[in-house]
Amino acid sequence: MTALLVSLMVFLGPAGSAEARAGAAAAADTVALPDSSALPDSSSSRVLGDSTGRGPAPPDTSGAMRASVLADTARARGGVDYLWVLRGALIDPAKLDHIVERAKAIGARGLLVQVVGRGDAFYRSDILPRSEALGGSEAPPDYDPLEEILERAHRSGLEVHAWVNCMLVWSARSRPRDPRHVLNAHPEWVAAIKGGRPLSWLKPRERQRLAIEGVYLNPAHPRVRTWIASVAQEIARRYPVDGIHLDYIRQPDVAVGYDPTTRARFALQTGVDPERRDRLPAPQRAAVDSEWLAFQREQVTAVVREVRDSVCAARPGLPISAAVVADTVRAMRSTAQPWQKWVQDGLLDRAFPMCYAPSVQTVMNQLVAFAREFGATDRLVPGIAVFNTSVAVAALKIKGARTLGFPLLALYSYDSLFLKPGTWPLLRTSLGSEPHDPGP
């Protein structure tokens, strides 16, 4: 503990100090950042948010006590509460038992299982086409990954939250083959960059140059909101999931909103065509730019609200969470994701900030800011990455989050934790956890 506190004093010191700079440099890496609930007794999760979906959660006077109990339990387990499970791990039915066994052995509370990847389904859907990845596997045609992992996980006492990618609907080099895929069925829903070019028109090399993960939908289109909400509702109705977990519930890190629908709606609201903002005088331009950013945040928020309303109509009280951008300045200004307000207003029961920065200093700065704003609460679950740093650095981030009082933590990802043999045993030792052995 003494060594940990000394390390934290270094990383929590003034950002400009020599110690802080040295610590940040030692933990830094150059890998780019990707995107990547109820308790076992689901009735205990109902206090996390407003189960009606009509407003913010009521005051929770037991929150501090619950957070303290969760933190003590987490320290005893070794620090991993939730694991993101990427869709590729679901392709082979024979590997589902390994996922559950390993998660149980390391003391995880639950799994965030990616069942909507790129506008396609890893479950039985009447809305989305079946994932092309499943068609290339040796699994039987009636294989339902979500149903299978739910049965195994619940039997072992683990939660399963359905991880749904929302705005991002395609990233492969060639277009989806199924005519029902949203890119083929509704090309008018695709977000557009300046000049009106839809993201689906960009070549892979151009997307790479602009640092866009793939093709995003336009949240200002009302039918897009309804479509995303219907997917979440379908899962909530059809499966006994423990929550709906939203990802890519944001804009890309490039200026979009220049499709006809968004331009018309903003022009009706403000009298200005966003495509012509640069022609305005400087003072007026600044005011319109501010309105434009607020307008885009409102569109993404409207998607979250419609998802919540639809899920609550199907299963009142089912927790809704989201993986969110940890850099709150970037979240607000670049990706139109005001997730802090979503938590405060009760639109989300939990937010999972993706604290994936390789630098320990960066992650600790983010965690300190979250702790100051939200306090010790189980409504905020920091997500720590193991794919882009050493095990020792990942362990330091986990220990730092626990020391700051965060009762729940998530790890990105299950795949990274077990891709290289020996990663979990080394992390377990670094965390001082009990010697569970989930296998290689």
Describe what you observe in this structure.
Pfam families: GHL10 (PF02638). This is Glycosyl hydrolase-like 10 domain-containing protein. It comes from Eiseniibacteriota bacterium. The chain is 42% helix and 10% strand. It contains 17 helices and ten strands. Strands 1-2-3-6-7-8-9-10 form an eight-stranded parallel β-barrel, surrounded by five helices. Helix 9 packs parallel to helix 11 and helix 15 packs parallel to helix 17. It is globular and about 60 Å long. It starts with a helix and ends in a 9-residue tail after the last helix.
Structure in a nutshell:
InterPro entries: Divisome_Glycosyl_Hydrolase (IPR052177), GH (IPR017853), GHL10 (IPR003790). This protein has 440 residues and is an alpha/beta fold.
